[in-house]
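**Fold in tokens:**
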Amino acid sequence: MESRLKLKKSDYIKTSLRSYFLQNGFNYNSYQGTGYAYSIYPALKKIYKGKPKELKEALLGNIEFYNTSPHMVPFISSLQLAMLDNGEDVKDARGMKLALMGPMAGIGDSISQFGLAPLFSTIAASLAIDGLIAGPILFLVAMIGIILAIKLTMGLLGYKLGTKVIDVLSQKISIISEAANIIGVTVISGLAVSFVKADIALKYTTTLDSGEEQVVALQTIFDQILPRLLPALVTIGVYYLIKKHNWSTYKLIGLLLSLGIILSALGVLS
């Protein structure tokens, strides 16, 4: 394995600070993908210095759907950069990145949304009720400061973990990456069937032995056979169009909107 080690500790700190602007690039195509690529861009430039083609491919590979807790992104990006800097395969690094998306989202959201935010908002609200302007100021300063500290800590933790563990596990990194890929695919599959909304509206009437008529929804039957089957088929179809026919996002959106409107008007979809 060729060891390049072009990144320094300061590069990981810079990447962690740039992640503060992660949500500025949020969009409904790639979610945090654009912001993630922005965060790691300077580090990728150093890793692929003098290799514009590889740099372009690395950036394009990171402008993809991504959605995790913004406060945990530095840990993920530092670990990914450490793998790339140590000469690990790009696919292995990407698999690790995708595998950490779900677990880090749960940890980060628990800390910020269910821990820090309620705590400091309660203190700030109490001060504000008493007429003290320091209440909202305290909330902003505390949240910004603590979240910044969390980002830097996570970034350095990912850097240390990546640089130390990769040397030890270099012979087994492919096995670890394969496991990470399985986790990543599982997470993406779960997100796909949760985000894609498609239900069949068709129903038919059957007569029971008692002579009573019963309305049966086809969606209920499909759910009994395989829950969320239609969203999975839609996702597979979109993947096929992207992978095999290089369809753009706009063409896909146009197709899905047209099918949704037509099939809903015909009563096929609800």
Remarks:
- The chain has a mean pLDDT of 83.
- The chain has two domains: 9-188, 198-265.
- The CA atoms of residues 126 and 132 lie 9 Å apart.
- The longest helix spans residues 90-129.
